[in-house]
Specification:
By secondary structure, the protein is of the alpha/beta class. It has helices at 9-16, 32-39, 51-59, 61-67, 83-93, 107-117, 132-135, 148-155, 164-170, 183-202, 208-219, 228-235, 239-251, 280-287, 292-296, 301-318; strands at 21-25, 44-47, 72-75, 100-104, 122-126, 224-225, 255-258, 274-277, 328-341, 344-358, 361-367, 391-392, 395-399, 405-408, 411-415.
């Protein structure tokens, strides 16, 4: 399989000249090791997946770094947290940049060790699965905004995927870009490895059968407001256990919790986060939608399409080196909004699937799998006009429409492949 260039490569090259250490983190199998090997082929590479090297790094960190002197890349570094103190010493002893490249698949534990040992000495990069742009070999690397300025720039390099459901169903793990790789087998191995290694390391989960039922129940709720009680009832566990297991999925990069927009003005807003899986292929495997065709016409098509769009937007921020957590939120109110279409009164939920905030401007986005967008679905966008000190910018419906168009003066329809 040919290597697919990653959008973060340029940032890696800049960080090499800026920081003494660089940490590349992200979920298992998103391509961290491959990225570092391809971007820096001449660096010494060691992996703590080797039990001997792991033991040496944990029990004799100083000797380990003497035998593996910088510049060096250390993979699966979370396996030896004891090593961080010695990396700090080496960094303090030298003025050179790019001494240590570190990577690992447990962001939560890694970040704890980094904040304790290497604060101010390390540049941190989060690598996601392949974005749609990367899969299409599209070098465009600006974060998504629903504006005409963005659309005009995006169109210059845009490459449309003929069947968007194929890329949604396949998922973003680099290994699956090999046409000879069997989809079912990959995800079966992924889930087995994830539960047997990462889950046991992140928390003392003994009942892996129950955890498997939990992750399937969670996948079936992607795109929904997180309801711990409903999941607990389905799998026969208490709410405390479900909350702990959700934190495991979040810490290992399997899911993302989209927080609600907070404002004192929006008193009736729901405060719970929305649950999104990071990879739509994994969702399809867990919920048994085994082909793109059955997915496109199945009951999960809407939530999976929304999950895909949100995931691609998050990647557009992180691939530009921006922390998407500071930019995105959602809104759902407890009140229903009455609106008229074609002379008929309709009652709609006050909901905005995604809000992007930038420079004091709020950009509301609805996400629909349909090929035709309707402006009526954006009725809730008006709620953002109530927020003092903020301005509502251009809104959009992301959908499967054939081209960009104006639904109203301040609302666009944008094909999902424009992300």
């Amino acid at each position: 399989m040919n290597y697919i260039s990653r959008a973060l490569e340029d940032r890696l090259y800049k960080y090499e000249k800026t920081y003494k250490s660089i940490l590349v983190t992200g979920a298992r199998q998103v391509g961290k090791s491959t990225l570092l090997k391809k971007a820096f082929p001449d660096r010494r590479y060691v992996s703590l997946d080797d039990p001997f090297l792991e033991q040496q790094a944990r029990e004799a960190g100083d000797m380990f770094l003497t035998l593996n002197a910088p510049p060096v890349t250390i993979d699966e570094v979370q396996r030896a947290k004891e090593l961080f103190r010695y990396i700090k010493i080496k960094c303090d002893e030298s003025e050179e940049k790019g001494l240590f490249f570190l990577s690992g698949s447990q962001p939560f534990h890694l970040m704890q060790n980094v904040s304790e040992s290497l604060s101010g000495r390390i540049g941190i990069i989060e690598l996601s699965g392949l974005s749609m742009r990367e899969c299409m070999r599209d070098a465009f690397n600006s974060h998504f905004l629903p504006t005409m300025e963005y659309v005009i720039e995006r169109k210059k390099t845009l490459k449309k995927r003929e069947n968007i459901w194929e890329i949604i169903h396949l998922g973003g793990y680099p290994e699956l870009q090999d046409a000879d790789k069997e989809w079912n087998a990959f995800y079966a191995d992924y889930v087995k490895t994830y539960m047997e290694r990462d889950v046991r390391e992140l928390a003392a989960v003994q009942d892996l059968t129950a955890f498997r039922q939990f992750i399937i129940a969670a996948a079936a709720r992607t795109g929904e407001i997180l309801n711990f009680s409903a999941i607990a009832s389905e799998i026969g566990k208490d709410v405390k256990t479900v909350k702990n297991w959700i934190s495991i999925l979040e810490a290992s990069g399997i899911v993302y919790l989209l927080e609600p927009y907070t404002s004192n003005v929006l008193k009736r807003a729901i405060k719970s986060p929305k649950l999104y899986f990071r990879d739509t292929g994994l969702v399809c495997y867990l919920t048994r939608w085994l082909t793109p065709e059955t997915l496109a016409y199945g009951a999960m098509s809407g939530p999976v399409f929304e999950t895909f769009a949100v995931s691609e937007i998050l990647k557009s921020f992180s691939n530009e080196g921006l922390d998407y957590r500071h930019f995105v939120s959602y809104y759902r109110g407890r009140d229903k909004k009455k609106t008229t279409e074609d002379g008929k009164l309709q009652e709609l939920e006050s909901e905005i699937d995604l809000i992007i905030e930038e420079n004091g401007v709020l950009y509301p986005i609805e996400i629909k799998k349909n090929t035709q967008a309707k402006a009526i679905t954006t009725a809730a966008f008006d709620v953002l006009d109530q927020i003092p000190g903020k301005r509502r910018g251009m809104g959009a419906i992301l959908c499967n429409c054939p081209q960009v168009g104006a639904l109203r003066e301040n609302i666009l329809q944008i094909p999902v492949w424009y992300i």
